[in-house]
Amino acid sequence: MRPLIAYVRVSTSKQSKSGLGIEAQQEALTRFAEAEGFELIRMFVEVETGKGSDALERRPQLAAALAEARRKRCSIGVAKLDRLSRDVHFISGLMTHRVPFVVAELGSDVDPFILHLFAALAEKERALISVRTKAALAAAKARGVTLGNPKLSEARQTAHKAAAIANEAAADQHAANVLPIIRQIKRAGATTLREIADALNARGVQTARGGQWYAMTVRNVLARA
Fold first, then answer.
1. Can 75 be counted among the known catalytic residues?
2. Choosing from 11, 16, 75, 92, which is the catalytic residue?
3. Beta carbons of 39 and 2 less than 8 angstroms apart
4. Which residues pair with 96 in a beta bridge?
5. Is the pTM higher than 0.70?
6. pLDDT band at 204 (very low <50, low <70, confident <90, very high)
7. Three-state helix/strand/coil letters over 115-173
């Protein structure tokens, strides 16, 4: 069995005390290791703080995990990519340490290029959702609608409409983000919608609503893109 060092991260001391997220990450990594033939030899648990001049100074457990992985000549496993970071530049910097990373939700066969691609797509998608949501709310405010007042039904309706607009924009952007991955899957030999859906599920790629892929959802994404 291949050795694997697990890294679990939460971002606040409150989450650490409550166990929010930690157990779920540990369970996901344990299941992943059993399914993929890894042996979890050590687990580092991080409660990130705001102290430190750079990201790794704020992540002493990640720095320790990197050092241990270099000594053991093994990979570091995380449950989800955002447990490393939501910043593509930070993830790129981690790759310079020449320690392989595996992400349970993406599968063990995802290489560093694909990790960079997923990180970049996620970062861009979050930025676009934020921009479009703010634009929709600003447009509502410009029409004279008072937002954020629960006593005004018009404000509530406008907020719902803004959210619907943002969700629609997010779905469009998600389709655009997934399209390069679908093209890669096609180049690998998939020809049917069912085969593409299976490959997306195998890679851990989720639909816009966070669910599994089916032939119909692949077709809808291709049509939207």
1. no
2. 11
3. yes
4. none
5. no
6. confident
7. HHHHHHHHHHHHHHHHHHHHHHHHHHHHCCCCCCCCCCHHHHHHHHHHHHHHHHHHHHH
